[in-house]
C-alpha cells in the first residue's frame, strides 16, 4: 500500500502549478479525499509559514480518473495582514474535476469554547478490522489498510433521540508520521472523506444507492496528530431528493475538538434498467450501433 506521505507528495511543475502522481487503487474513481488533500497541499505550498490554514470549501465537479495524474492550478486570491486566500482547480484531461477555496490566518487571541466530546468506548475496546477476516477482506479495508478505522457499535454509544442519523468512528493512521503539522492537516483532509457519507445510510440499511461526494467543507480548530486516535462524531440531519447532508466533529483522545466537517453527497436510489435501456446498452457494447 502507498503511504500517505507519498500520496500527498506533489511535483512542482512551475509557479503555482503542481501535479499529483498516479497510485495503485481498486477504486474506479479517484478518491475524493485524495483530491481534497492534494489540493490543500498545493494551496499550502504557496503561503508563508506565518499563516495557518483554518478552512477549506470544495466542490467535486466530475469523477476523477485514478489512472491519470491530476494537475493543480493555484490562484493567489488575496494576501492580507491577517488572512490570505487561495483557490485551487484540480484538472484532468483539460477539465476541472474539483475546485476548492482555502483560507489562512495568523494566530490571534479571542474567546474560547467547544462542545464536549461524546462518551464512547475507547478504541482499544473495539476490534481492529484487520483482525476480523470478514472486515479485512472487504474492499473498504483492503483499500485503506494503512488506516485503523473502528466504527463504534450503536448499542455502545449514547444516541440523541432527536437526531435522524448518526455514527461515531475512531480513526488514526497506523504508522508514525513526521512532526510536520501541515502534513497532519492535509492527512486529515484526506481522512475526512472516509465514512462520512455512510452516516446517511444508517437508518436505511439494505437500501441500494448511488453515492458520491458533491461538496466538502472543513474547519481546522486546534492542533492534532493524524497518527493518534481521533473520534469522528458524525450525523446526517437531512436526506431527500437524491442528496444527503452530513456533518462531523473530530476530537482528539483528550476531548479537544480539532476539526469540523460538512458534506453533501449524492444518495440517489439505484435504478433497474428497463428493457429498452438494456437493449441499447447491449447494442452499444457490441458495436452494432
UniProtKB/TrEMBL annotation:
What reactions does this protein catalyze? Answer: a fatty acyl-CoA + H2O = a fatty acid + CoA + H(+)
Can you give the residue ranges of the Acyl-CoA thioesterase 2 C-terminal domain?
160-266
Stretches assigned to the Acyl-CoA thioesterase-like N-terminal HotDog domain = 29-105
Whether Hydrolase counts among this entry's keywords is yes
Q: Name one GO biological process term.
A: fatty acid catabolic process
Keyword terms? Hydrolase, Lipid metabolism
> What InterPro entries does the database record attribute to this sequence?
Acyl-CoA_hotdog, Acyl_CoA_thio, HotDog_dom_sf, TesB_ACOT8-like_N, TesB_C
What molecular function terms (GO) are annotated for this protein? fatty acyl-CoA hydrolase activity
Iron as a keyword?
Answer: no
Query: Which stretches of sequence are listed as region Disordered?
Result: 267-289
In which domain of life is the source organism classified? Bacteria
Coiled coil start-end? none
Its subunit composition reads: Homotetramer.
Write out the similarity annotation: Belongs to the C/M/P thioester hydrolase family.
Q: What is this protein called?
A: Acyl-CoA thioesterase 2
User: What organism does this protein naturally occur in?
Assistant: Rhodococcus qingshengii
Amino acid at each position: 500500500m502507498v503511504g500517505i506521505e507519498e500520496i500527498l507528495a506533489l511535483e512542482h511543475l512551475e509557479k503555482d502549478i503542481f501535479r499529483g502522481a498516479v497510485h495503485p487503487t481498486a477504486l474506479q474513481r479517484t478518491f475524493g479525499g485524495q483530491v481534497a488533500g492534494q489540493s490543500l497541499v498545493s494551496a499550502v505550498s504557496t503561503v508563508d509559514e506565518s499563516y495557518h490554514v483554518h478552512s477549506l470549501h470544495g466542490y467535486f465537479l466530475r469523477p476523477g480518473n485514478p489512472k491519470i495524474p491530476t494537475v493543480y492550478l493555484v490562484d493567489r486570491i488575496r494576501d492580507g495582514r491577517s488572512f490570505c486566500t487561495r483557490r485551487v482547480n484540480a484538472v484532468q484531461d483539460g477539465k476541472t474535476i474539483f475546485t476548492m477555496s482555502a483560507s489562512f490566518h495568523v494566530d490571534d487571541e479571542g474567546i474560547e469554547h467547544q462542545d464536549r466530546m461524546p462518551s464512547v468506548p475507547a478504541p482499544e475496546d473495539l476490534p481492529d478490522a484487520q483482525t476480523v477476516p470478514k472486515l479485512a477482506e472487504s474492499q473498504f479495508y483492503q483499500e485503506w489498510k494503512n488506516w485503523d478505522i473502528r466504527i463504534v457499535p450503536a448499542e455502545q454509544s449514547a444516541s440523541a433521540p432527536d437526531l435522524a442519523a448518526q455514527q461515531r468512528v475512531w480513526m488514526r493512521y497506523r504508522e508514525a508520521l513526521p512532526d510536520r503539522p501541515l502534513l497532519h492537516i492535509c492527512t486529515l483532509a484526506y481522512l475526512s472523506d472516509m465514512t462520512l457519507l455512510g452516516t446517511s445510510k444508517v437508518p436505511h440499511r439494505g437500501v441500494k444507492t448511488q453515492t458520491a461526494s458533491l461538496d466538502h467543507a472543513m474547519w481546522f480548530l486546534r492542533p492534532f496528530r493524524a497518527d493518534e486516535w481521533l473520534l469522528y462524531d458524525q450525523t446526517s440531519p437531512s436526506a431527500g431528493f437524491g442528496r444527503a447532508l452530513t456533518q462531523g466533529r473530530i476530537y482528539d483522545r483528550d476531548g479537544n475538538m480539532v476539526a469540523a466537517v460538512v458534506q453533501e453527497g449524492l444518495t440517489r436510489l439505484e435504478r433497474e434498467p428497463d428493457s429498452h435501456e438494456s437493449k441499447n446498452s447491449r447494442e452499444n457494447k457490441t458495436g452494432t450501433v
